[in-house]
Design brief:
By secondary structure, the protein is an alpha+beta fold. The protein has two helices and eight strands. The protein has a domain of about 100 residues: Immunoglobulin-like (Sandwich), CATH 2.60.40. It holds the Pfam family HSP20.
């Protein structure tokens, strides 16, 4: 089974941050949030031949997303790059309200040992990043030994 990795240990400060995030979500009130990484929702599926992860990455371009595997951990990073058009708008326009987030995205998943890490493939379509990986083919581990 694939497990998500929570990089933030539970502390009193983190519990307070959860309350502040609840205000942000429910009352549209920016309550001095200090979290800097977006935690995009993901769906994880186990199939007979492997696993599939779907990660919501709306607003990102394929070129802004990177995937890596190290020590059995799949890490997905994405960071929006501001276009020249956006930079020009900043100079010529006064922002009345800004709700678009430009936080970097980072998610990590601990891969099971049964995954063939060389089989990982990724596809990005309509704001959804789909990562597929195959399980190792099961090999009969019983070996007969001839007696001499």
């Amino acid at each position: 089974m694939i497990a998500t990795i929570n990089k933030t240990p539970r502390t009193l400060v983190n519990n307070a941050n959860d309350i502040l995030r609840a205000f942000d979500r429910n009352f549209n009130w920016p309550a001095g949030s200090d979290y800097a990484v977006s935690n995009s929702p993901a769906n994880v599926y186990e199939e007979e031949s492997g696993y599939k992860i779907e990660l919501m990455a709306a607003g990102y371009k394929k070129e802004e997303i990177t995937l890596s595997v190290k020590n059995g951990i799949l890490t997905i990073n994405a960071e929006r790059k501001e276009s020249e058009e956006t930079e020009t708008k900043k100079v010529t326009s006064k922002v009345i309200r800004k709700e678009f987030e430009s936080k970097p995205l980072e998610r990590s998943f601990k891969l099971p040992k049964s995954i063939d890490q060389e089989s990982l493939t990724a596809q990005f379509e309509n704001g959804i990043l789909t990562i597929e990986m195959k399980k190792h083919k099961e090999v009969d581990m019983v070996k007969e030994i001839a007696i001499k």
